[in-house]
UniProtKB/TrEMBL annotation:
It comes from the Bacteria. This is Sulfotransferase. Transmembrane segments: none annotated. It comes from Candidatus Desulfolinea nitratireducens. One of its GO terms (molecular function) is protein-tyrosine sulfotransferase activity. InterPro entries: P-loop_NTPase, TPST-like. Keywords: Transferase.
Length: 341
């Protein structure tokens, strides 16, 4: 019986290759030839919107799809949040199947990157077609603050031909918005001290607007300021290096103050005509704030404290100590992005 088992095992190895165990080999990036082949089946131009959470990515997505030729949806998190797109093929078992020598479909190559690209292309293009027959440019917006520069590298391996649009917001306003989002949602990650701050806010908001009391704990403020800096540095560095002219970055505040000017520059990436009539549509879209409405419905007593989507909220909320801690952590990043002289 042992001899028969050995013969059968040898036969399987000859036909399929040796069964793999443990972690799979690194997933190869798409080649230029594979990209060209994929575009025959999924021809739409692709883009991805990145940025730290609470930096205006949703507003940008709402505005960018006002153009009749552009569609955008959000939170697919193909490359920005686990389990990630690569989880479809990220196992030794899947690698063995997609590279098996007896598989006459794979032409001796690893089909993994093609599987990933086909899945994401179908998700985006099918949604774009439902949005309108004239839509031929499609993208996803997913904040990348959980995966920073790695999200750019993962995207480039599957979409080297896509555009990466990175929106940056003053980190002080980012952290305030993030903090209140956690308060409104009554996040499971709130500590005992955090909950005491929430209770104090409900009881009397005055000390939090006069610099007497902080909405942050020092530990939370330091950790999240560091996260903001890390996200900005890694996203910009990897974006410029990997995507070159297909990488575009700008400030959220500029979008608030001159929305048509900024959106014209964004749409110009795709080499499409831009009608000034879009200005009216942009103004109408910016006058609404779905996130503010949702937060009020969820937790009105906290949500009313912070004006949503505004620039400069931090000036009324940061205490002297908050400013010291933030400036100590962020270094020159505020100057680099022209938030401070």
């Amino acid at each position: 019986m042992e001899v028969v088992k050995r013969i059968k095992s040898a036969g399987r190895i000859l036909l399929r290759g040796e069964d793999k165990t443990g972690p799979r080999a690194e997933i190869p990036p798409l080649t230029a030839e594979q990209v060209a082949e994929m575009k025959q089946f999924f021809p739409m131009e692709k883009f991805f919107i990145y940025g730290h959470a609470r930096s205006g990515t949703t507003l940008l997505a709402r505005l960018i799809r006002l153009h009749p030729e552009v569609h955008c949806n959000w939170q697919a998190h193909f490359f920005t949040r686990k389990p990630l797109l690569k989880s479809l093929v990220d196992s030794a078992e899947m690698e063995e199947w997609l590279t098996r020598r007896s598989n006459r479909w794979n032409d001796g190559t690893d089909l993994s990157p093609l599987v990933m690209r086909a899945a994401a292309d179908y998700i985006m293009e099918s949604d774009a077609k439902r949005a309108g027959a004239e839509k031929h440019i499609v993208g996803d917006k997913s904040p990348n603050s959980l995966n920073d520069g790695e999200s750019v590298r993962l995207m480039h391996a599957v979409y080297p031909d896509a555009y990466l649009i990175n929106i940056v917001r003053d980190g002080r306003d980012v952290l305030i918005s993030q903090r209140f989002r956690n308060f409104v949602e009554e996040s499971k990650f709130l500590t005992k001290e955090d909950k005491q701050i929430v209770d104090a806010l409900r009881a009397d908001q005055t000390p939090f607007t006069t610099g007497e009391r902080s909405i942050f704990t020092e530990k939370w403020l330091r950790a999240n300021a560091e996260g903001w800096v890390k996200n900005l540095i890694e996203t910009a560095d990897a974006g410029k290096r990997l995507f070159g002219e297909r990488y575009y970055e700008f400030r959220y505040e500029d979008l608030l103050y001159t929305p048509l000017t900024v959106m014209k520059k964004v749409w110009a990436l795709f080499d499409i005509s831009i009608d000034d009539a879009l200005d009216e549509a942009i103004q109408a879209e910016m006058s609404s704030n779905p996130d503010q409405t949702w937060q009020k419905e969820r937790n009105k007593s906290i949500a009313d404290f912070l004006p949503k989507g505004k620039a400069g909220n931090w000036q009324n909320i940061f205490t002297v100590r908050d400013r010291e801690i933030f400036n100590e952590v962020v270094g020159e990043m505020l100057v680099k992005w022209k938030y401070e002289l």
